[in-house]
From TrEMBL:
GO terms for molecular function: DNA-binding transcription factor activity; sequence-specific DNA binding. Residues 7-64 form the HTH lysR-type domain. Belongs to the LysR transcriptional regulatory family. It comes from the Bacteria. It comes from Achromobacter insolitus. This is Glycine cleavage system transcriptional activator. The lineage of its organism: Bacteria, Pseudomonadati, Pseudomonadota, Betaproteobacteria, Burkholderiales. One of its GO terms (biological process) is DNA-templated transcription. CDD domains: PBP2_GcdR_TrpI_HvrB_AmpR_like. Pfam families: HTH_1 (PF00126), LysR_substrate (PF03466). The keyword Transcription regulation applies. The keyword Zinc-finger does not apply. Keywords: DNA-binding, Transcription, Transcription regulation.
Amino acid sequence: MDLRKLPNLGALKVFEAAARRESFSRAAEELFVTHSAVSHQIRALEGDLGTALFTREGRRLTLTAPGKRYAEQVRAALASIAAASEALRSDDRERRLVVSLLPSFAARWLTPRVGRFIERYPELDLELQSTHTLTDFSRDDVDAVIRLGDGNYPGLFSEHLFDESFFPACAPGLNGGRLPVEPRELADMRLLRNDYQMWTAWFREAGLSGWREPRRGVLYQDASQQLQAAIDGQGVGLVRRSLAMQAILDGQLTRLFNVEVPSPFSYWMVCPEPLQEAHRVRALRDWLHDEAQQFRALYEMPRA
């Protein structure tokens, strides 16, 4: 068989749609092209084959006898190509693991650890989508999400990873290295604000009754940006433990005092129920479980 003699595959696709719909206009709508484009492709195909595929009686379109036979054969061939292509896509999709997570968590917690996942599961292609947008599993091409929440995800499988808490931290060189040793000394420090507004709860935990959220200065809506501001010496930040511990271990941040306040939310891995035991999601679950266990064992500090 000389494949060089094959007609244009685009023209065959147009012909199949026109034959099935018995209309150039409806074929054009299905393929998102113009009526004239369909008509031109059919004329070119008929010229290439040397035979008429349709008869046109006024506005009515009918397949000729050769056109009818050809339509059945083309439809079977295109269906075979589509099935083979879908099989390849399915194989590729089984290897592709798509995870959605908050940008701050992706940058400060997951990315420093992700190399161990790649080494452990070299057969999987991990795709990280850093976003604040909630995932709609019925619409979005996402296998699992990692979220900071209350664990209430109706109709979905959810697995607890670890709890979160807040504590003050700053750059070691802030104020010339003269850092506060008592919580009350924060009255003379610049406090970095964020959307979580947990300073009041921390003040209460530290015995500073009557102290309220700071009202001046930059308001950071992204926790990672606030953490970076603290690292850069812009003030004292009330940081999330999950995001700050690596910077503390690296000497970029100093934790102040031994007082922390628990977050009302924890980290959860969430996915559709049918996917929880799929190989790619099972791999993610096992790896996250191990990393979360190491995090709790190595990094968490006891509360006062």
